[in-house]
Each structure stands twice: as C-alpha cells, then as structure tokens.
UniProtKB/TrEMBL annotation:
Keyword Isomerase: yes
Protein name as catalogued: Maleylpyruvate isomerase family mycothiol-dependent enzyme
Domain Mycothiol-dependent maleylpyruvate isomerase metal-binding: 16-159
Top-rank taxon: Bacteria
Organism: Speluncibacter jeojiensis
InterPro entries: DinB/YfiT-like (IPR034660), Maleyloyr_isom (IPR017517), MDMPI_C-term_domain (IPR010872), MDMPI_metal-binding (IPR024344)
Domain MDMPI C-terminal, residue spans: 176-265
Record-level Gene Ontology MF annotations: isomerase activity; metal ion binding
C-alpha cells in the first residue's frame, strides 16, 4: 500500500496558483470560446469548468445532483462515459450545462475560495493521513498533488480549445509532472512491453525541459541516471508529452512531432502507450 509524504505548503500554494491561473484565463473568454470543443470527448470549455467545480465541490462535502430521467438516458447513451467516475463527473457537468458563463465563474470562484480556506486550516499531519484517492488508499497530500495535476491538465485543455499557448513551466507544472513521472515505469514496462535490459530516455523540450530515464531490470523503473547508453532516446515537446499521458491525443497523430533516436520500434511502442489518466 502506497503512502506518499507530500509537503503541505508546496502543494497548497501550487493548487491555489493553479486555480487563480484558470480563473484569469476564464475572464477573457468570448461566448464562442465558452462553447468551443475540447480534447475531452463530449466536453466544451464550459463543461470542463463545470467539471472542475464539481470535483472541488465534492471535496467540500457536497454530493452531485441526482439526474432526472432524461439526463440518465443521455448519460447511459454517452459513449465517452466509460466508468463510475466518468458517470459521476458527467452528473456535475450536466447539472451546470445551462448556466451562463458569468454564473459558472462565480461558482468556480466560490468553491475554490472554500477549498483554499479548508486547505489552509489543515496541518502537515492531516496531509500525511491516509484517505481514499483516485489511485487507491494514499495520503491526503498525494491526493492534493493529483488535484494539481488534474487542474493543470485542464488548464492545458482550455488553452488548446481556445487557441492559447500552453501554461508556463513553473512550480505547479513541476508538481503535476511528478504524477506523470510516477507512472512512467508502468507505462514503459507494462503498456509498451519494453524488453528486459532495455534502457530508455525521454527528453522533453520547451517550457519544462527534462531528461527522464527508465531502466528495465525485472521491472521498469525511473532512474536518475542510466548505467550505459540508452537503447532509444525519445525527444518531444513537454506539453505534447503531457497530452499523450493524459490521453488528449495519441502517438500516431504526431509522427512528425517526435524524434526517435536508436530503436525506432521500441521508441514508438513507448510513445503509443503513454496514456495513464482515467
């Protein structure tokens, strides 16, 4: 059973900054941009914001509205709703779909203020306590780091939908990155089936340059340094890497945007199997 100790101050500050960044982005949207489709099937910009409100509302203790019969039918027929979490998210989104953008922003501002106050009142010991999280039993601090990742990815969704450049590579992006890196060994070993003894390097470029190394010795694991030259080096934009891990796009759509040095078959197997987000 995992138990990740996460520094309360760093995570709460990053999460607060992330909420503010999204609020600032929303203030400049036109009506047409609010209706723009995102990379998430079935969701517009408006729907993504409603989802964020719903997620934080649940953390204040609120329950999602009960759908009427008509809404239940729509949810049952929605091909993008694949599991219980997806259905729960959709109930929140459906409940706010008719709200004008100004009212939606007011709700977003209210619930994030409530969450800031709740987090401020917590101690490091509270953050270390075990709780239920999207990845199973874990520390509350890990849960909040997952919230940083989720909100950061949704900022990227919003920016992509309205044609704005990606978010910056500051502290909140760095914390979100930790969730991605934590899944990399599983993705390379189990999803991409990298063979025993493989050495893989992923070089991300752009606003968040990183060198990520994975060694397969019995099981695949992220390591600080490789013990020899990599079998393959994968070079790609950091935000494209994030989109791939979040399932916002897939490898075949970006054959011209990724550079593979070394074992091309292994490299593309990794690129095509990076999705880990629910």
């Amino acid at each position: 059973m995992s138990h990740t100790v996460v520094a309360k101050e760093a995570v709460t500050e990053a999460l607060s900054e992330q909420w503010s960044a999204i609020e600032g982005l929303l203030g400049g949207l036109t009506d047409a941009q609010w209706r723009a489709a995102t990379a998430l099937p079935g969701w517009t910009v408006h729907d993504v914001v409603a989802h964020l409100i719903g997620a934080e509302s649940m953390l204040t203790g609120q329950q999602p509205p009960q759908p009427d019969v008509q809404t239940q039918t729509r949810l049952a027929e929605a091909t993008h709703v694949r599991n219980e979490i997806g259905a729960l998210n959709e109930r929140w989104v459906e409940s706010m779909r008719a709200l004008p953008p100004a009212e939606l922003v007011d709700r977003y501002r209210t619930v994030t203020a409530q969450r800031r106050a709740a987090l401020e009142a917590m101690t490091q010991a509270d953050f270390d306590d075990q709780t239920v999280t999207p990845v199973g039993p874990e520390s509350y601090g890990r849960f909040m780091r997952i919230r940083v990742y989720d909100c950061w990815m949704h900022e990227l969704d919003l920016r992509d939908a309205v044609g704005l450049p990606g978010p910056d590579g500051g502290p909140r992006a760095a914390l979100a990155w930790e969730e991605i890196v934590g899944a990399l060994g599983f993705l390379v070993g189990k999803r991409a089936h990298a063979p025993e003894g493989s050495r893989i390097t992923i070089e991300t470029v752009g606003p968040l340059p990183r060198s990520l190394h994975v060694a397969v010795d019995g099981r695949a694991a992220v390591v600080e340094h490789l013990d020899g030259p990599p079998d393959v080096t994968i070079v790609l934009d950091a935000w494209l890497f994030a989109r791939l891990t979040g399932g916002r796009t897939d490898g075949p759509a970006h054959r011209d945007d990724v550079e593979i040095l070394g074992d091309h078959q292994l490299g593309w197997a990794v690129v095509d199997n990076l999705r880990f987000a629910i």
